[in-house]
Write a structure and sequence with these properties.
The protein is α/β, with parallel strands linked by helices. About 35% of the residues lie in helices and about 15% in strands.
Length: about 350
């Protein structure tokens, strides 16, 4: 259903990433007057072109690096940017953090600064939305609640990725105060869904990706025994895509930080059961860690590993994500239209360990 959004021209950094692809698609599908400028370090590939084909006449793709201020000079000036979604980043990967910690910080912090430096010179910008991460909640502390994690809950950033995301939140807020920019931040829980694939900024795929990959290969999903006792707050990129455009253009927001999540802690066996109701041939087997596709730690239940409270979104926007079975079914249907292309085989180092 088309929604009544004001006319918008949106700059999306990291626009070819799997979550932002869904955000852009939903924005353009629900606002026929909107246009998007996607700034991404990766050139548009066949998958991106196919995903955006219905809206290709309203998307301008720019290949650029947010670490280079000159990349923002490539943005067309014929139609002023009215909104910004800053999502370009390098995700957490233990090997990347050890080998290139400076790059993680350069992209995630200085890339944010460069985006803000450009934005403060653009008089037509109405709002800048920064895509943070639930990883800023980090590990549980003595004061950490066992209830779904609030935006105001405990914070602890153990890795450079989480540190860089939280630091950028503070930088975004301060730029907003100093330069009178309307800013907000969103924190995602565990995301899966259409357009997830390995990229230079992302190597670890979500569990549902591995589940679909196992079906494609006609074999059981290989997991550890502990994984069967674990869980998480799983949310589809499609469901995130349904709410971010509304946050971006809402005339008034009650908060400057929002959790975007399923809002419930779902055990791994429940996810498997939901998926098996869609794909009866799906199965799993318990193996030693060396041979597992997915390794989840059952002791990780609180803080960033817990469900995230979504009361702010549900109250202000009457929003809630689809049931997990519907999210999985939609993702599976999309992937299986071209399985080897949309859900390609992964190298061993891309197995999921959390």
């Amino acid at each position: 259903m088309e929604q009544d959004y004001p006319q918008t021209t949106v700059l999306v950094t990291g626009g070819c990433g799997f979550v932002m692809s869904n955000v852009i698609k939903n924005l353009l599908a629900t606002n026929l007057d909107a246009k998007v400028v996607s700034l991404d370090i990766n050139p548009t590939d066949r998958l991106t072109q196919e995903f955006f084909r219905p809206f290709s006449d309203r998307i301008t793709h720019i290949q650029g690096d947010i670490r280079e201020p000159g990349s923002f000079g490539l943005i067309p000036t014929d139609q002023p940017i009215t909104h910004v979604v800053h999502a370009a980043m390098i995700a957490h990967h233990p090997q990347w953090e050890r080998e290139h910690p400076d790059k993680v910080l350069d992209v995630n912090i200085m890339g944010t600064v460069n985006t803000l430096e450009w934005a403060r010179t653009q008089s037509q910008i109405i709002r800048l939305l920064y895509v943070s991460s639930g990883d800023v909640y980090g590990e549980p502390k003595a004061a950490t609640s066992q209830e779904p994690h609030l935006e105001t809950g405990t914070l602890d950033q153990p890795e450079l990725y989480a540190i860089s995301k939280y630091a950028s939140e503070q930088i975004v807020r301060r730029y907003g105060d100093v330069f009178n920019i309307d800013t907000l931040c969103v924190r995602f829980s565990g995301v899966f869904g259409p357009m997830e694939r390995p990229t230079p900024g992302r190597a670890l795929m979500a569990m549902p990706y591995h589940m679909i990959r196992a079906v494609i290969e006609n074999r059981p999903l290989r997991i550890t025994d502990g994984t069967l006792k674990a869980g998480a707050d799983f949310i589809s990129s499609e469901d995130i895509g349904s709410i971010l455009p509304r946050l971006l253009v809402s005339s008034k927001l009650s908060h400057d930080i929002y959790n975007v999540a399923y809002g419930q802690f779902t055990l791994v066996p429940e996810v498997f059961q939901s998926f098996k109701s869609i794909v009866p041939e799906f199965d799993y087997e318990v193996v030693i860690p060396e041979f597992a596709d997915v390794i989840r730690d059952p002791s990780r239940r609180l803080a960033r590993w817990n469900a995230y409270d979504i009361e702010r979104l549900s109250t202000e926007f009457d929003w809630k994500p689809r049931p997990i079975t519907q999210q999985l079914a939609s993702y599976f249907e999309w992937a299986m239209e071209d399985p080897e292309f949309r859900c390609p085989r992964l190298p061993q180092e891309s197995r999921l360990t959390v």
